[in-house]
Write a structure and sequence with these properties.
Number of domains: 1
Low-confidence stretches: 5-28, 41-50
Structural class: mainly beta
Oligomer: single chain
Distance between the termini: 20 Å
Order of helices and strands: EEHEEEEEEEEEE
Largest sheet: 7 strands, antiparallel
């Protein structure tokens, strides 16, 4: 399943499920949090503006992120940044929420993997376009 949206319009293919509000009772080992923060700081992202970034706003259980050009998954903790080319996955009995610009939200069910193909990249027509591929699992998306 994949979906694309352009400012204030959405085209969704496949099945998207709504699920309940996330709880914020997340526990991570200190080593996971330290590795996630170190990975965020080690990647130079000078070509990206704020509008090209998203953020992990909530995690229940465990979520992982595979930064673009990386080989190893790292913990996706609350406050982690996501950009075009990143992948995010949730593990068993886990959920995650990503906030994009303009209050767009993606919530991921357990055992879900998404590929952030494009995140607010400008088209030839001057529109912002986002493409997210759901490789496995289910998502709920709020698109303003």
């Amino acid at each position: 399943m994949s979906f694309r949206f352009r400012s204030k319009a959405a085209v969704i293919t496949g099945t998207v499920f709504l699920f309940a509000v996330f709880l914020s009772n997340t526990r991570f080992e200190a080593a996971d949090v330290a590795r996630a923060k170190a990975a965020d700081s080690s990647v130079v992202r000078t070509d990206l503006t704020v509008k090209h970034r998203g953020e992990v706003t909530d995690v229940e259980g465990q979520a992982r992120r595979l930064p673009m050009l990386a080989q190893d998954w790292i913990a996706a903790v609350k406050g982690s940044e996501v950009i075009s080319g990143d992948k995010v996955r949730t593990l068993r009995d886990s959920r995650a929420e990503l906030a994009l610009k303009e209050l767009n939200i993606i919530r991921m069910a357990p055992l879900t993997t998404i590929d952030i193909v494009k995140l607010y990249e400008e088209t030839k027509e001057g529109r912002d376009e986002t493409a997210i591929n759901v490789e496995k699992g289910d998502i709920w998306a709020l698109i303003n």
